[in-house]
Amino acid sequence: MLILNEVSKTFNPGTVNAKLALDNLSLHIHPGDFVSIIGANGAGKSTLFNAICGSFFPDQGKVIMDGKDITWMPEHKRARVIGRLFQDPMRGTAPDMSIEENLALAAGNGGWLSRVSSADRREFQDRLALLEMGLEDRMYQPVGLLSGGQRQALTLLMATYHVPKVLLLDEHTAALDPGTAKKVLALTRSIVEENHITCLMITHNMQSALDLGNRTLMMDQGHVIYDVTGEERKSLTIQDLTAKFRQASGKALDNDRMLLGIEK
Amino acid sequence: MTPDKLLALGQTALELGLVNGLTVLALFLSYSMLNVCDLSTDGCFTLGAAVGALVAIAGYPFLSIPAAMLAGVASGFVTATLQMRMGVQSLLAGIVVNTGLYSLNMALTGNKATLPMNKTVTVFSMAKNLLKDTPFAGQYTLIVMLIVVALVVVLLCAFLRTKLGLAIRATGSNADMVRSSSINPAFTTTVGLCVSNAMTALSGCLMAQQQKNYDVNMGSGMVTVALASLLIGGVIISKHRAIPLRAVGAVIGAFLFRLVYALALRLNMPAFMLKAVSSVIVVLAISGPYLRKQLPLMLKSVGMRRSSASQPEGGR
Question: The whole model's pTM is what?
Answer without folding.
Answer: 0.89
